[in-house]
Amino acid sequence: MDLFPLFTQLKGRTVLVVGAGPVADRKIGLLLSAGARVIVGAHAAHPQVQARAQAGTIELRLAPFDPAWLDTAWFVVAATSNTALNRQVAQAAEARRIFCNVVDDAALSSAQVPAIVDRAPLTIAISSGGSAPVIARRLRERIESLFEPALGALAALAQRQRLAIRQARPQLRARRDFYDWLLDGPVLGALRRQRPAEAEALLTQALGQDTQAPVGKVVLVGAGPGDPGLLTLRGLRALNEADVILTDRLVSAEVLALARRDAEVIDVGKRVGGPHESTQARIHALMASHARQGRCVVRLKGGDPMIFGRGGEELQYLRRHGIAYEVVPGITAALACGAYAGIPLTQRGHAQSLTLATAHRRHDTVAPTTARSTPATTPAPDTGRTHVFYMGVERLPTLRQQLLADGLAPQTPCAIVENGSRPEQRVLHTTLDTIETQAQAHAIQSPALVIVGDVTALGAELGWFGTTLGTLPSRAHDAPLQTCA
User: Fold this and answer.
1) Rounded to whole angstroms, how far apart are CA atoms 136 and 439?
2) pLDDT in tens, 331-347
């Protein structure tokens, strides 16, 4: 974020505008609407600017720029067609530590004037940092259609009743629920019908009604593999409703940035080699403690909470202790890593089934790739199946031995997707006999997913995201894949 978003209080404060053409006049209008005292300095003035001066709404100084004009200013706008003059204004402002906006010149500006959606007192500002103002304006057009004019009147009503709302709903959860009711209930409808007195009466009546103490709950949310664009809409809503967020270490900072700013975020991530069971007990205790205080707890897990995320164990604990819960599924790492690496996990005629497994077992062994009721001799290779292993990087030697023992050929194509869907994604293409040495050579680290099967060879051709490592023979996607037996 190159710019810090900030709304400034300019009412009654002096703002200097250097320049008095049509562009300057538009800025003058915005500043006047914010209640600023506007001084305009220029050699000559556009008729509209002159009319404002004659009406007494601005002070007009028809003279060369004088840095002393800045002595009483809180903010300055340079809106001339003279680049040298604009630079002079910006330098004078910088020397006095006054923010300056130079119209259409981001390099000279210390502040930007955004595209504005005005639903006063609700204001929505969009800025591209001066790099693409047309895009900002187009986004403003879209947002204008999403926020009806009655929202301004609703915000003004809530502002007038803010103290009464806080007194009637002292608990944060109850107060937030009340504001949700304002948005979704009859008050906004009355304002749409231009009946402000009715809207205020409805609000006052609702405040006088007793409310039950908020009931806490836990929402298990799948955060996806890391790309915030893969978070579901329901997951986003849960993050914005959360009072407390218990987050895993695999949840990306970009996903957490979408949560409520005032939510309490607690890192409960497990570390490799750490005491997993004691950490899980702590997670259970935190969920129960916060939910019993009437808080909405989001248990945020990387990927999907019900796939190797111990989500089932957490639901069992919550059910035993009588705590309400919901589950919001996420895009699991296997689906995301395959898609972002260009690897189809199934392919008609080549991979008819898919196995998801974890290399970690309760007693720290590697999961077998196929179920066996008795010791096998030499099983037939399962060439029509794609195997995806979670948490397999640390156990590649054992995993490789197990797959070879299960009958897969040493030349079976494999891929390791590191940091799948994230900007730093790397995809290593290799074969089963070299997967361990290649992973070491390229310093592959967790989080990473291991994909084994003939279809992984397609990733060398179809990969579209991140960095590709290693080489495999390129194969046309409509040609039969050759099976190594």
Assistant:
1) 44
2) 999 999 999 999 999 99
How many other C-beta atoms can be found within 10 angstroms of the C-beta atom of residue 274?
10
Among 105, 118, 177, 270, the one annotated catalytic: 270
Q: What is the DSSP string of 6-43?
A: -----TT-EEEEE--SHHHHHHHHHHHHTT-EEEEEES
Among residues 227, 248, 304, 406, the one annotated as catalytic is 248
Determine whether 478 is an active site residue: no
Output phi, psi for 367, to 5 deg. Answer: -65, 135
pTM: 0.64
Task: Quote the distance between the C-alpha of residue 2 and its chain's center.
Answer: 17
Identity at 165, one-letter amino acid code: I
Strands 244-247 and 296-301: parallel
Q: Which helix (H) or strand (E) holds 203?
A: helix 196-207
pLDDT tens, 70-113? 999 999 999 999 999 999 999 999 999 999 999 989 899 999 98
Catalytic (active site) residue 248: yes
Distances (CA, A) of 238 to 133, 241, 291, 304, 327: 33, 5, 15, 15, 10
Range 261-268, long-range pairs (CB < 8 A, 24+ positions) = 263/239, 263/298
